[in-house]
Amino acid sequence: MSGPFPINFLRFGWIDAADVLLVTVLLYQLYKLLRGSVALNVALGLISLYLLYLVVKATGMELLTKILGQFMSVGVLASIILFQQEIRRFLLNVGKATALERMRGWSWRRPSEEAPVAVGPFVEAAKSLSNKLTGALICFSQVSDLSTFADSGDRLDAEVSKRLLLSIFNKTSPLHDGAVIITGGRIRAARCILPVSENPDVPAALGLRHRAAIGLSEITDAVVLVVSEETGAMSLVRHGVVYRNLPTAELRARLNEWLLSGLATGSARMADQPSAI
Ligand SMILES: Nc1ncnc2c1ncn2[C@@H]1O[C@H](COP(=O)(O)OP(=O)(O)OP(=O)(O)O)[C@@H](O)[C@H]1O
C-alpha cells in the first residue's frame, strides 16, 4: 500500500483508489454484459459460492473448505466454457474501444469493406417484401468478421440490387431460407445459418428468424434487418436490441446512420423504440 490517507489501521493510497475504481468499472461492465441473460444468474451463483468458500476458509471448516476448494479450482475453466459468448462479446467491445480500432479506416481495414453501403435497395426491397408478407433476414457486417457465418451458406459475391434481394427471398427461390450477408456493399452469401439467441427476455411473439438476428448481433457488431413473414413488420437488430416495427423512413434513417458511420457504437440493452427487448 502507498500514499497519504491513513484510515485508522488502514493506509489508503492513490494506487488503492485506482485499484478499487478499476475493479468497480470492470464489475459494472460485466454486469452490463450479463444483464438480461441467464448468464447473470450463473455468475451470481458462482460469486455466492466463492464468498461462501472465503467464509468457511476463514472459520476453519476444513471439510467444507476442501470440497468448495475443489469446486473453485475448476471454476475458472468452467466459467470460460459457460460464458463463451459473453467473453467473446466482452473482447469485441474492448477491441472496438481501442484507439487502433477508431483509426481502422486509415490502416488495416480490408479494401472490400471500404465501399459505403447504399441503403436504398435494402429499404426498397424490405418494403416490398413486407407488403407481400415475405420473410427476410439481411446482415450487414461492420468490423466483426462474418465469414464463418457466410461459409455456412452459399457464396454469391454479387452487386446489391432490389431485384436480386427480392429474388433471393422469394418463397420459391432455393436461396430464400436463412440469412443474406452483406460485406463491403456486396451480397457475399445467402442461405446462411446464424446463431440463435438464448436470451430469455426475447418476447415469445418473435420467431426463430428474429432470434437468429438477435443471436448474431449479440456476438458481433453486425446490424441485422428482419422482415417478419407473419406480420410484414420491418425491424433492425443491433447489439442484441430489436427496434421493432419500423416505418420505412425510420428504417432508412437508422440504416444510414449505423452503416454510413462505419462503426456502430455503444452497447445499450434498451432501445428507444417501442417493443424493443
Ligand atoms: N438460425 C437461423 N439462421 C438463419 N435463418 C434462420 C434461422 N432460424 C430461422 N431462420 C429463418 O427464419 C425462417 C422462419 O423461421 P420461423 O418459422 O421459426 O420464424 P417465424 O416464426 O416466421 O419468425 P419471425 O416471426 O421471426 O419472422 C426460416 O425458414 C429461416 O429462413
UniProtKB/TrEMBL annotation:
Domain of life: Bacteria
The keyword Mitochondrion is annotated on this UniProt entry: no
EC number(s) given by UniProt: 2.7.7.85
Pfam families from the UniProt entry: CdaA_N (PF19293), DAC (PF02457)
Domain DAC: 84-248
Keyword RNA-binding assigned: no
Keywords annotated in UniProt: ATP-binding, Cell membrane, Membrane, Nucleotide-binding, Nucleotidyltransferase, Transferase, Transmembrane, Transmembrane helix
HAMAP family: DacA
Similarity comment: family membership: Belongs to the adenylate cyclase family. DacA/CdaA subfamily.
Subunit relationships: Probably a homodimer.
Protein name: Diadenylate cyclase
